[in-house]
Amino acid sequence: MAHSSANTNRYKSMLDSLTTAVVVLESNLVIRYLNPAAESLFQTSMARSTGLAFGDILLSSDGALRTLRKAAETGQSYTRRETEFLLASGSRRAVDYSVSLLDQNPITLMVEIQPRDRLLRISREEDLIAQQETTRILVRGMAHEIKNPLGGIRGAAQLLDRELSSEGQREYTQVIIKEADRLRGLVDRMLGPNKALKLAPANIHEILERVRTLLEAESKGRVQFKRDYDPSLPELSGDKELLIQAFLNIARNAMEAAFESQANHGSEARTPTITFRTRALRQVTIGPKCHRLGCRIDIIDNGPGIAPELRQNIFYPMISGRANGTGLGLSITQSIIGQHHGLVECESEPGQTDFIIFLPLESTP
User: Do 173 and 153 form a contact (C-beta atoms < 8 A)?
Assistant: First the structure.
């Protein structure tokens, strides 16, 4: 008996280390076990899911549930490729999966699921990181070329200001000085945060609650906020104030877009709603690196969505979808999250825009 228990623990340890999602089901498709990769895929935990029907976390799957029932009845193995899973969270995943008989008495099935979009996402993230680094280099070079003559213009205007005796003429030099200062501030904001991170243990939910409190005060009750937090998330190592700024930039953009949509549609517009969602991720790849533990933060709004022609460029400086936008908020956010070894992505369609932030939770050298 002890030997059997040792084998079970050994096999569980092996399954826990796999990047392939593994789900073990009873014959009636009740969940018995999920490995960490499956928890990440289905955006749930084993503690929450054990004892639930598989259909509770997998809403639709091009006949996967029928395939599993058939496997339980016949004992045959099946493999399906290029299948789409619709999860209980509402997200969709392109996957290959196979089901096999793990035990005959009682009948137990093992489902192995390989996300097809994982490699595509890794490749897309690597391209995004490379583009951001190229943009940072270009912006730094441009900022240097702007700041040097700008300093000369400001200095010359100050010298001229001292020489002039007419208040009317000095008004013009003051305009030059103020506009030079404004341009310098714009360039500094384009460069993003230039101070070293003040790393300390930080609770992601405290950060999001601070953002929510600030926006509730700004919106004066005109925005509905929803929270869907994973209480199991541990603290991360980060600069709390910079992370607040990063999440505030995203959420404020969402709020302003929703207000613009409401103004355009009048009484027919939906109540602006922003949802904050957090989930733990195990064996998650962020850019080129795999992390043992990470978190996913979704900031979702029900605004008009981002125009397709802007979607690929919204993280570049000076790109904005709003008439009064500076186009710097998201660029700064991506820079801050990048300093924390994370990444920001965006999925958008009319009625739902989802900014997805990935952050590692274990310390990164």
Answer: no
Query: Over the stretch 22-51, which tens digit does the pLDDT of each residue have?
Result: 999 998 999 999 998 898 888 888 888 999
Helices (H), 82-230: 117-163, 167-191, 204-219
Helix H, strand E, coil C: the string for 160-201 is HHHHCCCHHHHHHHHHHHHHHHHHHHHHHHHHCCCCCCCCEE
Tell me how far apart the alpha carbons of residues 218 and 274 are, in angstroms, rounded to a whole number. Answer: 14
Contacts of residue 59, defined as CB under 8 A and 6 or more positions apart, other chains included, come to 86, 87, 88
Q: 288 by DSSP, 3-state: which?
A: coil
Determine if the pTM surpasses 0.70: no
């960490």: which residue's tokens? 36
pLDDT digits (tens, 9 = 90+) for 182-229: 877 777 666 666 667 788 999 999 999 999 999 988 888 888 999 999
Query: Among all chains, which residue has been given the structure tokens 């490995």?
Result: 35
The candidate with the shortest Cα–Cα distance to 75, out of 111, 55, 96, 99, is 99
Q: Which of 221, 225, 228, 200 is nearest to 212 (CA)?
A: 225
CB crowding 138-156: b at 16 or more within 10 Å, else e: ebeeebeeeeeebeeebee
Cα–Cα distance measured from residue 222 to residue 210, given in angstroms and rounded to the nearest whole number: 18
In degrees and rounded to multiples of 5, residue 314 shows phi and psi of -65, -20
**Residue 232, CA distances (Å) to 44, 45, 49, 204, 280 in order:** 11, 9, 14, 11, 7
